[in-house]
Design brief:
Length: about 70
């Protein structure tokens, strides 16, 4: 579980944290996150993978609203 979340969730967060300050300073930018349909609908026997993708979807949805004032989409 830890390794799946480390890659699929925390890895994405680390990357966003690296690029975010520059995007805020420039007042613009795009963040493109490649996810999975399992971030929207779970599939039997893929519970941990789906949970990591659900977490990423939720995080990015919340972040998108916060970054509107910086013109980052």
């Amino acid at each position: 579980m830890k390794s799946v979340f480390e890659t699929n969730f925390f890895g994405v967060i680390r990357m966003i944290k690296e690029v975010m300050p520059d995007m805020k300073k420039r007042k613009g930018g795009h963040i493109i996150v490649v996810s999975s349909v399992m971030g929207l609908q779970g599939v039997v026997f893929n519970d941990v993978y789906a949970a990591s993708k659900f977490a990423m979807e939720g995080f990015c949805e919340c972040l998108a609203v916060q970054l509107l004032k910086f013109n980052v989409t």
